[in-house]
Amino acid sequence: MACWRFCVRCLRRWQRDIFECSGGLFGGRKTSLPEVSAVSNAESTATVRKTALNAAHRRLGARMVDFAGWDMPVEYPANAARKSGGLIAEHLIVRSSVGLFDVSHMGDIRLHGPQALGAVQHMTFNDASKLAIGQAQYSALLYDKGTFVDDVIVHRLGEEDFLLVINAGTREKDYNWVREAAKGFDCVVEELSDKYTQIAIQGPNGWRTLQKLTDVDLTTIKFYWFTHGTVCGLPNTLIARTGYTAEDGFEIYIPSDVATSERVWDALLAAGEEFGVLPCGLGARNTLRLEGALSLYGHEISDTITPWEARLDRFVKMDKDEFTGKEALEKQKGKGLERILVGLEATGRGIPRDGYPVLDAHGAPVGVVTSGSPAPFLKKNIALAYVPPILSNEGTVLAVEVRGQPVACKVVAIPFYKRPRRAKAAE
Amino acid sequence: MAYPPEYKYTKEHEWLAVDGTTGTIGITDYAQNSLGDIVFVELPKVGAELVAGKTFGTVESVKAVSDLYAPVTGTVTAINEALATSPEKVNSEPHTAWMVKVTLANPAEVDGLLSAADYEKFVAEEQ
After folding, report:
1. Could you give the CA distance from residue A12 to residue A75 in angstroms, rounded to a whole number?
2. CB A157 within 8 A of CB A318
3. pTM of the model as a whole
């Protein structure tokens, strides 16, 4: 086997000889590692950043990888203490019970002040005015041309107080863009990313795990709502019922000093022990979100892709008076699309991977895979890909070129996986 | 996991077991551990000619694809069919879950491969 390394943007090892990084789909964007800014508690070096849980991951024996400039766990091994481990076990435990993720590399931007709502409405495509205090929504920042700066989760902390959770690889870009977009609005823009360790507790037993460590009745928090409460003795902790796994779960935001971060991480592992909790790396995070067909920046969405193409229509509120990118989206809607996101399931033997060409029934190239992988829960090889709309109907037979050979695929409905409805108490 | 002392190794992390003029090829514990959960192994057909240093197949984990490189030149006489349905055997028993058997075309090539001790040293430096 040749020496391998990881593609920074797509979580995938690739070989220097035969693979091209999937970066550069649709126009050759460069992988830009974020510039290093002054970091408060999280460790930092000139090239690689570390979360406060870095040492904890290494103690667990995690395989670490450079992800968007961050030294992050991609998977944890099986060892004496944890009989199972590895990407597939981590993926499955989140579907069946509970898994723990360090997602402190995600960024946080707070906007507050008399015109914070106006600023958020101006810079995002969803309608933040519809949010109650304590509610969150999926949204995105667009350029004037209607393509993505990034996708974000908007949390309404107060009438005129919002928290935007953004992607790791786009932190600096997003912050600069948000500051620029907020000009002319009477509000303060704060970069809080390094102040928080963000831990995701995901899976149907996520709430049972976290419940042991908090005084908040978690069953009262609905999906995509949040509250503040005491977690592990830390008062006023933001507890959100959100995640990126297509499963029920919570994300908590705690102070980013190493001692506190490790104390809470260890407490969660202990609390989840009776449910078989596993620490989970970015590998499982990627396959979990792919089964749920959740977009990943740099793959399904980017600065050359619009929300219509990415099939995020339901989040785009065109009845809003104005938001950045709206005119371009109106224009594109009138013109029609040249490509659209589809789900593919391989029917032939082979695994579609990021960047592989999509072929029509005659073998002509018609598109490209943006994310492709074996799906550990569904036990199928699946992919998200861009193809012309005429080839996007469910059941359409296509192929993905896997190392020069066509592997038969068919277009299937997305998401590939939908979590089952559970008892009301757990909802 | 110990590297069998009777095997020979490549810097690309394959192992070779030699019995007369028959060579058996697999990937090492280090390789399977680096790849993670293996889900797919693509092998040549019986009769295919392997050339030392050239690719002869691929092995895929959930998150990675890697080429297999032939440690020696030779003709494929058997492939491990069991890996088509149980590729995870490469994770659990890397040094017995062989991939192909070949008839060595040039047995002298074997001398150019690493001993278990040298391979172990090489892997230690890689980590």
Report:
1. 12
2. no
3. 0.89
pLDDT tens digits, A178-202: 999 999 999 999 999 999 999 999 9
Across the interface, do A19 and B65 touch by the CB < 8 Å criterion? yes
Shortest distance between the Cα of A17 and any Cα of chain B, in A, equals 9
**Contact A284/A87 with Cβ under 8 angstroms?**
yes
User: Using a CB-CB distance cutoff of 8 angstroms, which residues of chain A are in contact with residue B58?
Assistant: 403
Which of the four pLDDT bands, split at 50, 70 and 90, describes residue A83? low
ipTM, interface predicted TM-score of the complex: 0.86
Q: Where are the domains of chain B?
A: 8-105
CATH top-level class for B8-105?
mainly beta
Q: Predicted confidence band at A43 (pLDDT cuts at 50, 70, 90)?
A: very low
Structure tokens at A56: 């904890």
Whether the Cβ atoms of residue A90 and residue A281 lie closer than 8 Å to each other = yes
Cβ-count burial of A224 within 10 angstroms (0-12 exposed, 13-18 middle, 19+ buried)? middle
Cα dihedral angle (A289, A294, A299, A300), rounded to 10 degrees?
Answer: 160
Which chain A residues contact residue B15 at CB under 8 A? Answer: none
